[in-house]
Amino acid sequence: MNVVLIGFMGTGKSSIGKLLSAKLGYKFIDSDQQIEYDLKMSISDIFAKHGETYFRQAEHRIIKKISQYNKAVISTGGGVVLNKDNMVELRKKGMVISLSASIDTILERTNRRNNRPLLEQEDRKAAMTELLAKRAEFYADADLVVDTGKYNPQEVVHIILNFLKEKGAVYAKSKG
Q: How far apart are CA 133 and CA 102, in angstroms?
């Protein structure tokens, strides 16, 4: 069984994923890092040189591959939910946890780094609001939704672990 983290950029999928994988003793996989590794270029460069469609095709290939793992915490890119087939693959062996946060929290977090191709616009907040509105229903279709703006990372991990234990997806042996 895998734990799949979905959610908009800046909701904490990578940081929560690393903490959660350590608690569970699972492998941590970041799908965006896997795409960068396989294509030997950054996400920004992929978007700039090949466009979003090419990126989404590469993303789907990676999702098909990593969804076959077992006992992994998989952190996905924010747009992974746009392809229904991605979600079908990820659900085959995984519980889907959606991480959320307010627009202002996401804006603050994503302003720290300028490697978000879909936000490279004059009005980042408007671009973010529009993207989030298009994806909201997909993010809500998860086994659990946790607002990472309301809790610190350790509390988020605790909420997820409790949920997984309640569902019988993991056992009470988690460390700490």
A: 12
pLDDT tens per residue across span 119-172:
566 777 888 899 899 999 999 999 999 999 999 999 999 999 999 999 988 765
- Between 13-24 and 153-166, two packed helices, what is the crossing angle to 10 degrees? 60
Torsion of CA 84, 135, 169, 20, to 10 degrees: 120
Phi-psi region of 133 (alpha: psi -120 to 50; beta: other; left: phi over 0): alpha
CB 73 within 8 A of CB 170: no
What percentage of the chain's residues is helix, strand, coil (to nearest 5)? 55, 15, 30
CA 137 from centre of chain: 15
CA separation for the pair 94, 9 (Å, rounded): 20
Q: Which residue has the tokens 């994503």?
A: 110
Beta bridge mates, 96: 4
